[in-house]
Amino acid sequence: MTDESKIIDGRGLAKKIEERVKYEVEGLKKSTGVVPGLATILVGDDPASNMYVRLKHKACDRVGINAEDHKLDASISHQELLALIESLNLREDIHGILLQLPLPSHLDAQEAMQTIIPTKDVDGFHPCNVGKLLIGDEQLVPCTPAGIIKALEEYGVEIEGKNAVVVGHSNVVGKPMAAMLLNRNATVSICHVYTDDLKRYTKEADILIVATGVKHLIKADMVKDGVVIFDAGITEEDGKVYGDVDFENVSKKASLITPVPGGVGPMTIATLLTHVVIAAKHFAGQRTHLYK
Q1: What is the structure's pLDDT at 239?
Q2: For residues 4 and 21, what is the distance between their CA atoms, to the nearest angstrom?
Q3: Beta carbons of 22 and 277 less than 8 angstroms apart
Q4: How far apart are CA 232 and CA 249, in angstroms?
Q5: Is 100 a catalytic residue?
Q6: Which residues contact residue 202 at a Cβ distance below 8 angstroms, ignoring those fewer than 6 apart?
Q7: Which residue has the higher pLDDT, 239 or 218?
Q8: Which of 47, 65, 71, 217 is the most buried (most CB within 10 A)?
Q9: How crowded is residue 206: how many other Cβ atoms within 10 Å of its Cβ?
Q10: φ, ψ for residue 211 (rounded to 5)?
């Protein structure tokens, strides 16, 4: 049985963030009359995407953010999708736009994401926001890495000078995660499906972040004692959810570890709420930096 003191409580941390966001929303409304607004765009009927959007809307309701969902048929044309995004860009009551991925194959996700103006890009995927991240100007950044950084700070984990290993090099988690760790002076290794001898890298990690979607990729013999682990992967199998880390065995060696579910996921959604408030403050002329 895993020592409870080792488990990073993503739900508890998310609740703490939500309380702060609710306070910020109320304060912004009182001082400027602006109520933060989020528009989500969901194309098609993917069950997982539907679930994620519902969770995001419920979180918005809890903190007082106005959320509206644009559900589009899977057969929508690319130009129709871009036209919707451009119309949301112009609306003063919408401060954040979230395009739920993945999109049907006939739609260009990259162009769609770039159509969202940078100040409303609460997912942090626009090239302008990615570029700012790379030069250390962290404003709207991808939500999962931002949530992990918040958890590292909350649990008092030293980042500077530590060996941090990121497994998975996606634009959503791996690459921005590496950049945020570099901005905090960690020594960072990025591993992926083409990495030769993955264990050689993971065994040296003081901080290990895994986001591959490969069930139980990380075994106990692949980590050292005292490692801090964030499992951002998820695999559904026979009605059960699994992470990228063999939690039962790896947790015996870790000093801190996130469970799946209940770890990284709630922190990601809470960070999204924070980004909507940042975007609304920007609209109201109250510039703010979350990660400084």
Answers
A1: 85
A2: 27
A3: no
A4: 17
A5: yes
A6: 165, 167, 191, 208, 218, 222, 223
A7: 218
A8: 65
A9: 19
A10: -150, 75
Check 9, 121, 123, 244 and give the catalytic one: 123
33: how many CB neighbours lie within 10 A of its CB?
8
Q: What is the DSSP string of 181-219?
A: HHHTT-EEEEE-TT-S-HHHHHTT-SEEEE-S--TT-B-
* Burial category of 251 from C-beta neighbours within 10 Å (exposed 0-12, middle 13-18, buried 19 and up): buried
Which segments of the chain does DSSP mark as H helices, in order? Answer: 10-32, 47-63, 78-90, 109-115, 127-134, 143-154, 174-183, 198-202, 247-250, 264-283
Which residues, 6+ apart, have CB-to-CB distance to 141 below 8 Å? 124, 129, 133, 176, 180, 291
pLDDT of 278 > 80? The answer is yes
- In the set 9, 56, 215, 244, the catalytic residue is 56
Does 215 qualify as catalytic in the annotation? Answer: no
Q: How far apart are CA 48 and CA 27, in angstroms?
A: 34
Asked whether 62 and 11 are in contact (CB, 8 A), the reply is no
CB 166 within 8 A of CB 189: yes
Residue 290, amino acid: L
List the structure tokens of 281.
């403050």
Q: pTM of the predicted model, to two decimals?
A: 0.94
Q: What are phi and psi of 99, to 5 degrees?
A: -100, 110
For the CA atoms of the chain, what is the radius of gyration?
19
User: What is the per-residue burial (b if ≥16 Cβ within 10 Å, else e) of 47-79?
Assistant: eebeebbeebbebbeebbbbbebbebeeebeee
Backbone angles phi, psi at 140, to 5 degrees: -95, 110
Structure tokens at 121: 């890009």
The two structure tokens encoding residue 65: 């953010």
Q: Quick one: pLDDT band at residue 288, thresholds 50, 70, 90?
A: low
**Domains recognised in the chain with CATH numbers:** 34-117 (3.40.50.10860), 143-265 (3.40.50.720)
